[in-house]
Design a protein that fits this description.
This protein has eleven helices and ten strands. The strands form three sheets. A four-stranded mixed sheet has the order 1-4-5-8, with helices on one face. Helix 7 runs antiparallel to helix 8 (280-308). It is 49% helix and 15% strand. A hairpin with a 2-residue loop joins strand 2 (141-145) and strand 3. The chain has helices at 8-25, 29-35, 41-48, 68-81, 88-102, 105-117, 232-268, 280-308, 314-339, 349-356, 367-377; strands at residues 122-125, 141-145, 148-159, 166-172, 182-188, 194-199, 210-220, 225-226, 270-271, 274-275.
Length: 380
């Protein structure tokens, strides 16, 4: 079924993203996977292709395009290609909007030009060793010292933690104010007391650098406060719907690509003198997955329309996030089974997809948290 949500200009960007992946990423996949790190040069290349900052203001070098469908196209193409790519969704859909919507003119002039070219890589540091979904458990603190902040604490599971130059740190600036006690501080590479811990050894997504970050009496200038003091929690909540929709888009696009490869496999692989896809169980299973993926795509497109119209709600995004990531996990698991023993071999993409997809029901808010948001909206 043709997806009517996209216009010709979105498909043009899709072709650009495809060219970027084939030329700038495909030759280096094995290297990045083995080194557990994507080269910084790939971000610079993405900037030259116009794949970073197209949604940033033109006066800083961005594209000035306020249309989440462009983000969706890039997310889909990267997800179909595989995880050995620069974290463009992190830059465009998560970090960038904080700078664009909360930054002062001075901050935008200082950070956005390099961010848009890929010279400066961003990250968001929220999760801590003892606190994830529950912000009330965060222990990282920032205390006023004249015009500066003194930052102390540790973060973990930070995407782009190794490569990042600008880290938006969620810190408690008022220990008595609960949700009104958090602020966002931008820590820059090279600040004294800011260190990076080990590159975490993950089950999947090996090329995507994820690390621990440590802050020991880091002096953060007052000019690096992002947004309003004490409004950090609300700033985070404002951006979460689009972040979660991005994860849902990635889940379905990746699962659809795994399904496509499996479709070819079950046509080519024979058993008992016939293609394994011709057995009724396998034929029905492929039909079921195709149907469910298409239905999920239709809901995603509905959410994309809402995002473009600035009407996407936290509940809609939560529904998309939990359903699409759980479906993606189930589809990939079925595809491994259909591959038989070969599905367990890393030389087949489906085996790598199996470990890569598992995190999607966890990061960006677990399935359980998504259901909690939806349930509360029902008055339960």
């Amino acid at each position: 079924m043709k997806r009517l949500v996209f216009e010709p200009e979105h498909e043009q960007l899709r072709e650009t993203a495809h060219q970027f992946l084939e030329k700038e990423c495909a030759p280096y996949v094995e290297k990045w996977e083995s080194e557990r790190l994507v080269d910084r040069e790939s971000y610079l290349a993405a900037g030259k292709y116009g794949l970073i900052g197209f949604n940033m203001p033109e006066e800083y070098g961005g594209g000035g395009v306020d249309d989440f469908r462009f983000s969706a196209v890039i997310v889909e193409e990267l997800s179909k290609f595989g995880p050995a790519t620069p974290g463009l969704s992190l830059q465009n859909d998560m970090v960038g909007p904080y700078f664009a919507s909360l930054g002062t003119e001075e901050q935008k002039e200082r950070w956005l030009p390099g961010f848009i070219t890929g010279e400066l890589i961003g990250a968001i540091a929220m999760t801590e060793p003892g606190a994830g979904s529950d912000l009330a458990g965060l222990k990282t603190t920032a205390v006023r010292d004249g015009d500066d902040w003194i930052l102390n604490g540790s973060k973990t599971f930070i995407s782009a933690g190794i490569n990042s130059d600008l880290v938006i740190v969620v810190a408690r600036t008022d220990p008595e104010a609960r949700h009104k006690g958090f602020s966002l501080l931008v820590v820059e590479r090279g600040m004294e007391g800011f260190t990076r811990g080990r590159k975490l050894d993950k089950m999947g997504l090996h090329a995507a650098d994820t690390s621990e970050l440590h802050f020991e009496n880091v002096r953060v200038p007052g000019g690096n406060l992002l947004g309003q003091e004490g409004r950090g929690f609300y700033h985070l909540m404002h951006n979460l719907p689009s972040e979660r929709l991005s994860i849902a888009i990635a889940a379905i696009a990746g699962a659809r690509e795994t399904w496509r490869e499996t479709l070819q496999y079950v046509k080519d692989r024979t058993a008992f003198g016939q293609p394994i896809g011709s057995f009724q169980h396998n034929r029905f299973l492929m039909a079921e997955m195709d149907t469910e993926l298409e239905i999920a795509e239709q809901y995603i497109d509905r959410c994309l329309r809402a995002a473009v119209d600035k009407e996407l709600t936290a509940v809609q995004a939560s529904k998309a996030k939990w359903w699409c990531t759980e479906l993606g996990k189930r589809v990939v698991d079925n595809c491994v089974q259909l591959h038989g023993g070969y599905g367990y071999m890393n030389e087949y993409r489906v085996a790598r997809d199996y470990v890569d997809v598992r995190i999607q029901t966890i990061f960006g808010g677990t399935t359980e948290i998504m259901k909690e948001i939806i349930g509360r909206d029902l008055g339960l």
